[in-house]
Every structure is written in structure tokens, then in C-alpha cells.
Amino acid sequence: MRNAPKHKPNSLLVASTVAGVPADRRGSSLLTVDPDQEVVVKVVSDDTEAEVVCGLLRANGIECFYRDTEAIDSPLEDFTAAGPREVVVRSADADAARQLLA
């Protein structure tokens, strides 16, 4: 049997296994940012769109994460992963992120 190649751990995977990390921040380098320094730059329809938007931002050097938004009010909202997501960046990056997403 061949030895499996050694890979660097995926930061997203490593962060998702850390106890005490809120689910909406797993894989984010914004873990240590004061919530008062976070800005919602876009609300998108679902996880897929949020991944695309964050990918664009990250490709341009802007760190981000996304989270559930309080916009939905449904008895099923705690049981489904569907629904709007807020894309969040540092306040210092908000203007650049908005320009990029315009």
C-alpha cells in the first residue's frame, strides 16, 4: 500500500473542528475581530451565492465570512439550511468590498 501524500491541513476544515467556534465563523480569519468592527456588505439568497461572493472578495484580498440573517421568520428556519445570508467584512474593508460587488 502506498503512503498517502502529506498535505497541509485545510484551514476551513481545521477551523470547523475547533470547539467553541460559532458555526457562522468557521473557516474565517475574522474570528478575532471585534463584532463592532464587522460590516454587512451584501445580503444574498443562499449559501451558494454567499460562497461565490466571499470567493470574489477573498480573491481580491478582502477577508469575509457569511452568516444567517434574521430576515426570515419561519417556523422551519431552525431546521433548514436555506435562506438569506449576510456577507460580512471588516469595517476597514467595507468600501472596497462594496465597490467590488457593485
Largest sheet: 3 strands, antiparallel
Strand order of the main beta sheet, please?
1-3-2
Between the first and last Cα atoms, what is the distance in angstroms?
52 Å
The strand count comes to: 3
What would you call the structural class? alpha+beta
User: What series of H and E elements makes up the topology?
Assistant: HEHEEH
If helices are DSSP runs of H or I spanning 4 or more residues, what is the number of helices?
Answer: 3
Shape type: globular
Question: Helical content, roughly?
Answer: 25-40%
Radius of gyration: 16 Å
Mean model confidence by pLDDT: 74
CATH A-level architecture: 2-Layer Sandwich
CATH top level? Alpha Beta
Architecture overview:
This protein has helices at 11-16, 47-59, 94-101, and strands at 38-44, 64-68, 85-90. 16% of the residues are buried. It has a single domain (21-101), classed as 2-Layer Sandwich (Alpha-Beta Plaits). It has 102 residues and is an alpha+beta fold.
Question: Keywords, please?
Answer:
single chain; 102 residues; alpha+beta; Alpha-Beta Plaits; 3 helices; 26% helix; 18% strand; globular
Write a short abstract of this structure.
The protein has 102 residues and is of the alpha+beta class.
Topology readout:
Layout: H1 11-16, E1 38-44, H2 47-59, E2 64-68, E3 85-90, H3 94-101
Antiparallel strand pairs: 1-3, 2-3
